[in-house]
Amino acid sequence: MSTAGQGQNPLFPRILGHEAGGVVESVGEGVTDVQPGDHVLPIFTGECKECPHCLSEASNMCDLLRINTERGGMLHDGQTRFSKDGKPIYHFLGTSTFSEYTVVHVGQMAKINPEAPLDKVCVLSCGMSTGFGATVNVAKPKKGGSVAVFGLGAVGLAAVEGARVCEASRIIGIDINPNRFEEAKKFGCTEFVNPKDHKKPVQEVGFLENSIPYTLLNFERVIAEMTGGGVDCSIECTGSTQAMISAFECVHDGWGVAVLVGVPSRDDSFKTHPIHFLNERTLRGTFFGNYKPRSDIPGVVEKYMKKELELDKFITHSIPFFDINKAFEYMLRGEGLRCMIRMDA
């Protein structure tokens, strides 16, 4: 049994899938923002454009359409639009994209340039936007700065892509799988660290200006020594609480910013000494790269169309829908980044 869904309340049967691109086939009563023929990206979160979060420039966490893993029906009536033999099949994240047809709330659809290739820009509907936005919208490294990215899966490499676009001079990739290092060079990583090589605690007491003792770990010291005191920004993309601690404690005092992207297990917590905050390090979280789906994602698609953002290199496999289980096998074995599932074959 897989532990990938640990901490979740299962609801079955349901149609999974949440990264996709498609064409509007028809619209319901009162829908005016999109029309049949529009090219769209369904998004696992939404933007109602009316709640306090949507009206705030600082937030993208819509009160109405925020991610809900347990909701299995449409928002306004709670009923599912899928069934088989008269029995309901439930929705997933409001998108259910592992299907030739699906039904999505208009607030969870980003209308995009019809010239954009759907088999490329579909990756912007979740992972790529999450990682890329964590860097460019939240960490905001300066040109010539240093960035550490924890976890070199697809989301982490999207964060690396963001650091490259921001013209960071040093992009340090951190992963316990060294097989990922060579591939990560193509995305902009300039150097690498494997935490397994530095995992033993060093029970060495350091003394800060107020004489509070603290324990240093080899790993944080490695980053500090590599960068002259710590990186300017770090992006954590693993969901590991130890990686979160390391990402925060490895940024430079005075100005360092650590951004948490990975989703931990429900009961996880982590501990760090308050002195790290008093020494003017900043810890931030982000959701979907701080992008508002309907307002911002069309502009990210345009970055791709203008060749300011590379997406093709994230798509490492392409298979027809009837071979979808192969995509799960690739994912579980850690092979490739994104597998494109084609509905036309």
TrEMBL record:
A Pfam entry, by short name: ADH_zinc_N
GO cellular component: cytosol
Keyword Oxidoreductase in annotation: yes
Domain Alcohol dehydrogenase-like N-terminal: 9-112
Domain Alcohol dehydrogenase-like C-terminal: 154-302
Needed co-factor(s): Zn(2+)
Keyword check for Transcription: no
Family matches, as InterPro entries: ADH-like_C (IPR013149), ADH-like_N (IPR013154), ADH_Zn_CS (IPR002328), GroES-like_sf (IPR011032), NAD(P)-bd_dom_sf (IPR036291)
UniProt GO molecular function: S-(hydroxymethyl)glutathione dehydrogenase [NAD(P)+] activity; zinc ion binding
UniProt-listed PROSITE patterns: ADH_ZINC
Keywords attached to this entry: Metal-binding, NAD, Oxidoreductase, Zinc
Domain of life: Eukaryota
GO BP annotation list: formaldehyde catabolic process
Assembly with partners or alone: Homodimer.
Similarity section: Belongs to the zinc-containing alcohol dehydrogenase family. Class-IV subfamily.
Name of the protein: Alcohol dehydrogenase class-P-like isoform X1
